[in-house]
Write a structure and sequence with these properties.
By secondary structure, this protein is α/β, with parallel strands linked by helices. It has 14 helices and 13 strands. The protein has helices at residues 6-10, 37-44, 49-52, 59-69, 81-93, 109-116, 134-140, 163-176, 228-237, 245-256, 258-281, 302-311, 335-348, 351-355; strands at residues 24-25, 76-79, 99-104, 120-125, 145-151, 179-183, 204-209, 222-225, 285-288, 293-297, 314-315, 317-318, 328-331. The model has no long low-confidence stretch (mean pLDDT 96). The structure holds pyridoxal-5'-phosphate.
């Protein structure tokens, strides 16, 4: 019988849902509308046969992105989405059998990668009021810990960590020789960042992505930002052509057009305001988070509501765990998208809706 890596054999994977194209997608923290069509058309014109026949060359984008975030290209490692950044960082900096401290609930791929790589996952739980004790995170870090992975802001819940809290965690991680990841996938929806800490500490890694505000989830473009030594190790762990040329070109052109960035951000902010005003008007209990998503407490069972909304061609996220099972999570889009959602919510959030 052939060999199967036992970690992979035993890992439990829940693969992303398919057939989402015809729906208003409010379930996976994407931009439901995406980039302006005329911008997409203009970039598509650059994809000549010769361009497609050439292996990707990331250097031009790297320099522009480095300027954009005010670091050197040597501080950046591009990955096939930040999903891949998680994998490489764990592969490089966690010894087999060592532990990884995260919070829970959190982005599920942190736990999945622990299982795939034979690492011990130590999740520190949020309380019922959606807060977490940083003291609990610090006490979970011990001599077995090689990586602490925090999201700032966390997905799905939680207020941002303060800089003082981040420093406490980094100091404790330093004592045991662990790396600290701050996953900033939702940066720009909120302005907080720990990026500058890469200059002060030699064990800090920042993850960013083009999947969220920049609306390129289909292209798969993530970035690790850290000191040159860490980046050099991570670059060695990647395949030769990790990031594809289409992703690089779209991302480069977004950086070339600052008005696109401004438009994406102002549309998000207008959409968030529209949604919150509307939820207030209709008396809904809701919990906005710092990222591009919000929790809403429906009048009926959350899973039933999700089924009802599917009939309206709208996808929302629900949870099985005790903390979140009474809520739906939706990601925020333009005001007209939020209005479409609210109209559907009012119709679907009744027991009768299910019988129609
Ligand atoms: C916190 C966090 N990190 C990483 C990712 C994955 O992003 P990417 O599309 O860059 O792989 C997500 C996706 O939802 C996320 O929520």
């Amino acid at each position: 019988m052939y060999y199967v890596n036992p970690n992979i054999k035993d890992v439990v994977r829940i693969f992303p849902p398919q057939d989402r194209y015809g729906y208003l997608r409010l379930d996976m923290n994407e931009n439901p509308e995406g980039l302006p069509q005329d911008f997409v058309d203009s970039v598509l014109k650059e994809f000549t046969p010769s361009f497609l026949a050439t292996y990707p060359e990331p250097d031009i984008f790297m320099q522009k992105y480095a300027d954009f975030v005010h670091v050197a290209p040597e501080n950046i490692c591009l990955t096939n989405g930040s999903d891949a950044a998680i994998r490489y960082t764990f592969e490089v900096f966690a010894a087999p059998g060592s532990s990884v401290v995260t919070v829970t609930p959190s982005f599920e791929m942190y736990g999945v990668n622990c299982n795939m790589l034979g690492l011990v996952h130590k999740p520190v739980p949020y309380s019922k009021d959606f807060t977490i004790s940083v003291a609990d995170i610090i006490s979970a870090i011990d001599e077995t810990t090689d990586i602490v992975a925090l999201l700032n802001p966390n997905n799905p819940i939680g207020p941002n960590f303060t800089e003082a809290q981040a420093r406490q965690v980094i100091d404790r991680a330093n004592e045991v020789g662990a790396i600290v990841i701050f996953d900033e996938a939702y940066h720009y929806f909120c302005k907080d960042t720990f990026l500058l800490l890469i200059n002060e500490y030699d064990n800090v890694i920042i993850f960013r992505t083009f999947s969220k505000l920049f609306s390129l989830a289909a292209c798969r473009l993530g970035m690790v930002i850290s000191n040159e030594t860490i980046i050099e190790y991570l670059r060695k762990a990647r395949p030769s052509f990790e990031v594809n040329a289409l992703a690089l070109k779209f991302a480069e052109r977004i950086l070339d057009h600052p008005a696109i960035f401004d438009e994406l951000l102002s549309t998000f902010e207008a959409g968030k305001k529209h949604l919150i005003d509307s939820l207030e008007k209709h008396g809904y209990e809701y919990y906005p988070q710092s990222g591009n998503f919000i929790f809403i407490k429906p009048h009926i069972d959350a899973n039933l509501l999700a089924t009802n909304l599917m009939k309206e061609k709208i996808l929302v996220k629900t949870y099985g765990n005790d903390l979140l099972k009474n809520y739906i999570r939706i990601n925020i889009g333009a005001p007209k998208i939020m209005e479409q959602f609210m109209q559907a919510l009012i119709k679907a959030d009744t027991k009768e809706a299910n019988q129609e």
